[in-house]
Amino acid sequence: MCNGLRQILARTDKVLSSRGNKDIYIFRGLVHNHQVHKELLERGIKDIINDIDKIPKDSTIIIGPHSAHYKEIEMISQKANVIDTSCNRVQRVINSAIELAKNNDKIVFVGSREHEEAEIIRKHIPNLIVLTSEKEINILPQKEKLGFVCQSTFNSNVYKKIKFEVHLKGLNASFAKSTCKDVVERQIAIEELCHMADIIIVIGGFHSNNTKILTKICKSKNKNTIHIETASELNADLFKNIKTVGITAGASTPDYIIIEIFKKVLAMNRNKKNNFLDQINILQNYMRLSFYTISLYICRIKYKIFTKL
Ligand code: SF4
């Protein structure tokens, strides 16, 4: 899981512990992951609420990583207690767009049209242009000054390609640095892994935008890519004739789900010939990808494997 969501969940935890079972709601969603969402409901969050008019008086509203328009926050504050957990990297995208617009730039958002960041920026800049790939570059106005921002979790290569094409066309444009470091690192790491592994397992919510992008990148490099949410979706047939398994995960995937899947892959692998080499391959590839997670846990697993030999 990315650093931003870790901090957001830690803050949510504190709110849940300090406010007991009082009315606590999440405004428009916190984490694009069904399992985390289910846990939050079990722990006392009442629901996700999308409509400000439906917010109960004196309730507590947690605003998630994608924030909300400042007027919406003002309206919510009039009836409820607001805990704004918005991620500063998302905020950077929104602020960059607002700043560029102040210079009379025509703002171009590179990302998904329906993504929360596009929706919030549209509330500040109604005539926002959205580009989802370099193939759409011809829709850009030729004579106006353009200011580009990229969705924090978008494919950083697509942003680079658009930048290249825009310069090639000689358009007057500036580009804000707005992709999230956590996401870009994952995207770079999987490039190499896709060539080394016989199967790639991408773990994350089916409705998580950054996981879908990760899966798309993996599929373009390694056709034998599967996207799963939990360990229950794995079966032995997937690993027939497989020697090396590559594992990666979206920014919103909790560590315990990654660990469960990792353990299940190892367990299935133990029954095969040459299992030691296979396991080490999995470990090496996994360690390369685990920037923020379970390195101690991996050492323990590695130790177990060595002692088994
Ligand atoms: S992926 Fe990046 S931008 Fe999104 S919540 Fe995590 S740290 Fe923030």
What does this structure look like?
The chain is of the alpha/beta class. The chain has helices spanning 3-19, 34-43, 70-79, 88-102, 116-124, 156-168, 181-196, 209-221, 255-270, 275-289, 295-308, and strands at residues 24-27, 47-49, 60-63, 81-84, 106-110, 129-131, 146-150, 173-175, 199-203, 225-228, 245-249. The strands form 3 sheets. It has a 4-stranded parallel beta sheet with strand order 2-1-3-4, with helices on both faces. The chain has a 4-stranded parallel beta sheet with strand order 6-5-7-8, sandwiched between helices. Strands 10-9-11 form a 3-stranded parallel beta sheet, sandwiched between helices. Helix 10 (275-289) packs antiparallel against helix 11. The chain is flat and about 60 Å long. The structure holds iron/sulfur cluster. Iron/sulfur cluster is lined by residues 2-5, 65, 87, 89-90, 152-153, 180, 182-183, 251.
